[in-house]
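Re: your question about Helix-turn-helix domain-containing protein

S., sorry for the slow reply, the queue was backed up all week. Below is exactly what I fed in.
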Amino acid sequence: MISTLSIRNHYTSELTRCINEIVILLPLNKPCKINLNGTTITVTDGIIVNNADLYQMLDVQELLELKIPLPLFIEKDTNISKSYFDFNRIQFVEQFRNLVLESIHQPIQDEFSMNMYISSIIEFLLREARVVLNNIYIPYLNTKHPLVGRITKYIHENICETLNTKHLSQTFYISQSYISILFSSNININFKHYTTSLRIALSLYDLIQDNKNIYEVAIKYRFLNVTTYSKHFKYYIQMPPKKYIFMFKKGHYKSPYKIVSNNVTSKNYLNKIQEPTMHTSNSDYSLNLSKLSFSNCFKSMTTLIQIDDIYTLNHFYESHIVGNDTTTMFSKINFCVLDTHLKQLNALSAQQFIHTIKQLMLKGHQLTIKITNLSLRQTQKFSVAKLLAELATDSAQITLQFEFAYNTFNELSNFIEKVHLKYPLIKIGTTIDCIIKSKNTLPQMLHHITSIKADFYYIDLDLNRFYRLMAPKVVKSQKNYNLKQVLLIFISQLGIEHANKLILTHLTHKSLQDYYNTSSQQTHILLTRFLVELNQSICGFGYPYYTDDNDRIMLFNKFHCPMPIVHIYSFLKVFFKQQVSLLPNAIICKTNWHYHILLFSNVEKTSCIVKINHHFIKSFPVFSRLLNKDHGMITNLIPSNIDQKLFGLSYIEQINSANYPLSKLSLHYYKEPLIYKLSQSSIQYIMIAMS
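Result:
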């Protein structure tokens, strides 16, 4: 009698009676169908099969099956026969699943660990899933055939009486052969097997719970004699009753002290998912909420949304702000209109443009306009000066962005002075790419940048292009600096005051890979790390609303579906303007009533386990959101190799409606730590409510 763990994959079992064990079934990836006592159930989180239950697995895939011997439960509670376990009664489902799956994540090596593992599961079930009855548990059989229902009910109520087809035929006024047909066709099990297996299952309690001798038990359940009882007992339990009693009294049912996987598929599957954690400690990463220091202020960073032209700005407003406001995900939004050279801007279009801008400003957003002409006249029909006059009351929310490519340093500096005099509340920004390209040394570059009286410094260069230009100017020795080192040196030399004006507007997947020196395709993880690490150092980041350059990190794809960056900002939003604890793969803050935790996986590991210890003395609710390859990754939902023209807009909208992180609300048992297993592509947000 040992505990066995299996992973069932594309597996269908025969209908069988659960005897001398409690079976825990947990789907690992997708819902599974289980026939339990005549009812086919779709199992999502898990199900428990009790002693005497009839059950069958129906083409299950990646289903964990853990069988624990019944004597281990009787050892914990000698009155276990008058109860059963119901998975639906478990409040702390995630904790129970983590508890059972522990043997997969952390291979059990010794006797003590095995005892603790099985014992903790039994104690959890007794505490959380047990339903107490007045009488011994005999499962009700669900059937659509009324006569079968009446017969099985009669059998259950008279299980200790004489039961055979002759007796039942007289009781129900039907032929013996018809009874056999009813059982075979409706229950898929023959009559004798149904009654005998039930009697053996129930007799176990008498043998070891009530300490009755074998003869008494055989007589109680109407077996002809001890020999007949022993014969059937050995058939179902694989040992005679005498040995069964002896093993229970001596405690031999506890050995061997390891989980046994009973098929090759299980072993291969277990080996595959154990491999990432084989060389780690009990958890790859451990947090203790009561010992954290919240010493860093997580700034509310500027988000520069780059819009091609004013028509696109109006489209963005109607698509993503009117009705469903996507911009609530971001902090300090600044809409940057890249091209204001409009040749067909009539009076109606101009008025609509101004209305859109005013609506955006009412929501607290900012507007940035690129300036290429020092007269503030972009075209004959569009004057920035006229626009500024229309928005005079909102001028504090406007930024003019200048570029040195169009003017000399002195010309631009003088013009900025004039703008400040005429529009004292307007902010000034300047693109510094030309300075980076033209100056030969880092000190020269820094002198020119800091001499400009600007509120923002924009770097429109891709980070790899920035690195190629900057590296020769930063290096003073034979040492070769990488991209990350060069950027951090530049920020450091710029000084805190001026670095806090810096906005990086050209982030690419390739440059993030180079920045972190990895070939990982999980660049949403790299982006999250990048945002968190540079939060203390610079002003913010810019992203295109949409671009045909697939290497650029953009907000939406061509179907207006949010890209992962939108979800990342929704995770980070709660941390802005909060005192936080910054850890290598996590950011944590504590408000009056909540802990907020953001975990992001290590791209160099296939998976990692995070254990969160807490100090709470009663159970508490936990809200979580998970972004990974299955949830919130629109590039996975709409693969690039599929021609989207084959689908109508309605299908894209349906896909987009599923393009969100997986949200879950659960109640956590206070005596257990929170444990999360993060796959290589996972970002996990957790909110703990403090009661």
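The first strand starts at residue 4 and ends at 8. The domain at 4-136+257-276 is CATH 2.60.120 (Jelly Rolls).

Happy to talk it through on Thursday.
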